[in-house]
Amino acid sequence: MTRKEIPVPTLERLSTYLRALASLDIQGVEMVCSSNIEAETGISAAQFRKDLSYFGEFGKPGIGYYVSDLQKRIEKILKLDREQSVVLVGAGNLGSALAAFPGWKQHRFSIVAVFDNNVSKIGRKLWDLEIQDVRELVHANRDYQAKIGIIAVPATEAQNVANLLIVGGVKVILNFAPATLRAPQGIVIRNVCFIQELAVLSYLLSEEESKIENVALPSGNK
Amino acid sequence: MTRKEIPVPTLERLSTYLRALASLDIQGVEMVCSSNIEAETGISAAQFRKDLSYFGEFGKPGIGYYVSDLQKRIEKILKLDREQSVVLVGAGNLGSALAAFPGWKQHRFSIVAVFDNNVSKIGRKLWDLEIQDVRELVHANRDYQAKIGIIAVPATEAQNVANLLIVGGVKVILNFAPATLRAPQGIVIRNVCFIQELAVLSYLLSEEESKIENVALPSGNK
């Protein structure tokens, strides 16, 4: 059995389509064409069609795609068609915001446990989950069997937490701490870094400003 | 004057290098070679050299790069070598987490104002900033002149907030709400979507699991 691995940028676009489709679905839209997707996501209609062609035929020529069909197909590709347990480490503001996020259920992710190292938090509730001592993580995950972990702790604690998650059986980590984490092969880490996003925006802002300047110059507006 | 626009994936990698360099700098490392960067970021040494070559010569052949030099050069490329004002909308858990984030100053971003629509929050402090009524945003930003806005409000409010930011003069928006936002040309929006990150991880997890299965099969381990 051979599997083609899907490149990460394609995965990212697929999940962007999924978000757009969910939004269209809520609006009661039943069918879309690739130009609707372009309007909704900013990803070109051609790129959208190319991404889907990778997985075989989807749409009806000249008509478009059924929103609910397309959602299901993409969910299947992304393996979102099954329940997935997630453990969250960090019950601070960020952890609270993440736990309260309404999108989990929709995508069949379930935060099954929350851990922290702050004794004043341990035993209290974060929404409907009891905050557990992070030192119990490895042991506790024998029961939960979560393969996905989220790190929402300060940078100085992030590597320790990653180590605990990995020893506890977690295979993929979403890291919100501004730290570069080390992990053995076979463990996948994705870093969410606000500052990196802002750095990109900072450059794009300067681009926009220079365009405005160029338009104002006689020679620039060509 | 011609400018080559830097593709977004390159910008993203540049900010990843910057993060790695900051981490090495804290550890007291003075010089790095491209393989150090690979170890630190997971981005290949060849890709790193290619990215830098885009901006001219940086390193010393056979020796490597001065960490502090390289940081400054990349900061300059990303236009992080100047103070930048940011307005934050949303003083909930996520907004609080973002405002408390220690990386702002380091990258010369300054959150100058926080807005919310919740009357029980308006007038109170979020860290050292007074939470202002979101209806004052457009007027208030005449003084702040912030070009960067962060949206940390529920999805249902996000488009309204984006509209206010844009009318108020904001040019680039970092959107944390799980909503697809519409904006006129010339406005740059970047969406930070946790669920999208998890969707990517979900697929990568299934890949890892299938690799383990394949290794267990006699024909799979080649």
SSE blueprint:
The structure is a homodimer of 222-residue chains.
Chain A lengths: L7 H19 L4 E2 L1 H8 L3 H9 L11 E2 H11 L6 E6 L3 H7 L3 H4 L2 E8 L8 E2 L2 E5 L3 H8 L3 E4 L3 H13 L4 E4 L12 E4 L2 H23 L6
Helix pairs in contact in A: 1-4, 2-3
Features:
homodimer, 222 residues, alpha/beta, 7-stranded mixed beta sheet, two-stranded antiparallel ribbon, 9 helices, globular, disordered C terminus
If you had to describe this structure to a student in words, what would you say it looks like?
The structure is a homodimer of 222-residue chains. Chain A is an alpha/beta fold. Helices cover 46% and strands 17% of the residues of chain A. Chain A contains nine helices and nine strands. A seven-stranded mixed β-sheet of chain A has the order 5-6-4-3-7-8-9. In chain A, strands 1-2 form a two-stranded antiparallel sheet. In chain A, strand 7, helix 8 and strand 8 form a beta-alpha-beta unit. In chain A, helix 1 packs antiparallel against helix 4. Chains A and B meet through helix 1, helix 5, helix 6 and helix 9 of A and helix 1, helix 5, helix 6 and helix 9 of B.
